[in-house]
């Protein structure tokens, strides 16, 4: 995509903000670091730098569904440190909410699992949580879904949360002495076929998609509904992008993400090339060509944009000056 020469300065960004009516904001972990929540890939401070002690060949394996099926203790050894526990949101969250309140926000695609968009007042119908969230959790065996918070005490205590429904089944089902593998085979042969679990189902009894859970973990390990590597993104992601946003968007703002993880990294090239694109982050990216790069602390950048636009970014953490 050739750079559009029309836009390149901070004031161009301000003009675009003021005149645009359908802004897509794509966010990543960088918008929450000012609250003390680490991002993933910043050297030294990012979560992946801090996982060397786990001895993984790649720290991303913590969020890999195949690894989780084999040994959920790896994820759960980290999960207690990344549970959403903040009630505050950053000035950048407030900025996105301000765009919404001005009627300019088309969609906020967030890769974050801290759920702070909701705390900032971003409405569910303006938000796509591309990588899911801790809001719900599901059993990897039977799909039983529960509110995520109900597992937090066990996760904080360092325990592996188990599915209550599977445990009940084990106690009450007459053939419960069967191995889980045998019981599943009967279901998969069609005698008790149930719909497969789909994103959005709250409490489906669906047949598990996870065939590879080894016997020692097969009795219903619960997994927060964050999207692991190897899992599909929520349906809403591609549906909203293709059916709702692609023909409406008039400005794209990408904030605090390294754009290293597909398919979210493909959102910007997917949107029409004539739509201006602004990148706000500490670290430049070379694999996507933005019209305007505003490099620096995103809270500072958005505060300055608002100041120049004459907008009141009402937030306790707005930096001085
Ligand atoms: P990354 O850690 O890859 O990128 C965060 C970016 O934000 C980096 O470029 C930082 O330089 C920048 N940054 C950090 N703090 C900032 C600040 N205060 N102001 C401005 N920029 C700042 O995080 P993501 O791109 O969000 O997926 O990572 C994408 C996905 O990779 C995550 O959703 C997660 C991870 O694996 C899953 O877990 C499935």
Highlighted features:
binds 2'-O-acetyl adenosine-5-diphosphoribose, alpha/beta, 6-stranded parallel β-sheet, DHS-like NAD/FAD-binding domain-containing protein, 321 residues, 14% strand
How would you describe this protein?
It is built from 11 helices and 9 strands. With 321 residues, the protein is an alpha/beta fold. The strands form 2 sheets. A 6-stranded parallel sheet has the order 3-2-1-7-8-9, with helices on both faces. The longest helix is centred in the middle third of the chain and has 12 residues, at 180-191. It is elongated, with a radius of gyration of 22 Å. The two termini are 36 Å apart. Bound molecules: 2'-O-acetyl adenosine-5-diphosphoribose. It comes from Chaetomium tenue. This is DHS-like NAD/FAD-binding domain-containing protein.
Helix and strand arrangement:
Blueprint: H1 10-19, E1 23-27, H2 65-70, H3 73-82, H4 91-101, E2 105-110, H5 116-119, E3 127-129, E4 132-139, E5 145-147, H6 152-156, H7 164-172, H8 180-191, E6 222-226, H9 235-245, E7 251-255, H10 267-270, E8 277-281, E9 292-295, H11 298-309
Parallel strand pairs: 1-2, 1-7, 2-3, 7-8, 8-9
Antiparallel strand pairs: 4-5, 4-6
The chain binds 2'-O-acetyl adenosine-5-diphosphoribose.
